[in-house]
Amino acid sequence: MITKEQISTLIQEKLEADDCFLVDLKISTGNKITVLIDSMSGISIDYCIQISRLIEGSLDREVEDFELEVSTPGLGQALKVKQQYVKNIGREVEVTLLNAAPHKGILTEVTENGFTIEEEKKVKIEGKKKKELKIFSHNYTFDEIKSVKVVISF
């Protein structure tokens, strides 16, 4: 049986050498292998092909057949690894918490245990008629969030 550890070991050295990182690796029933990779500067189709060929060349279809898909995470997918958070500093994200309403804001900082977003809100200031725009900073730990997605704007 093909394992996640086996695939991860096959590609880890190449990914590290090329300043890339593994986002997700799934092996479903029927040996459908799905590998999601990324880098700080993006991934080309040619690079996905290189990783695909590296995996295919190391596995024997005669011993165990498999289906392989190597790609980058899609635009609407949640961030999964710390490197993705770092890559998206300065972009607007939507944070869905485990036990509270979602927040939108600009991702400003990533630490070992979490991240910070800045959210703009119009608030009523005492003694003034108009609401003013204020920036609120929110700190989250990775274990208190359900998902974080980059907000796509055109």
Automatic annotation (TrEMBL):
Key words of the record: Cytoplasm, Ribosome biogenesis
Gene Ontology CC annotations of this record: cytosol
Top-level taxon in the UniProt lineage: Bacteria
Compartment(s) of residence: Cytoplasm
One GO term (biological process): translation
Alphabetized InterPro entries for the sequence: Ribosome_maturation_RimP, RimP_N, RimP_N_sf
Domain annotation Ribosome maturation factor RimP N-terminal: ranges: 11-75
Family stated for the protein in its record: Belongs to the RimP family.
Function of the molecule: Required for maturation of 30S ribosomal subunits.
HAMAP family cross-referenced by the UniProt entry: RimP (MF_01077)
This protein's name: Ribosome maturation factor RimP
Lineage: Bacteria, Pseudomonadati, Bacteroidota, Bacteroidia, Marinilabiliales
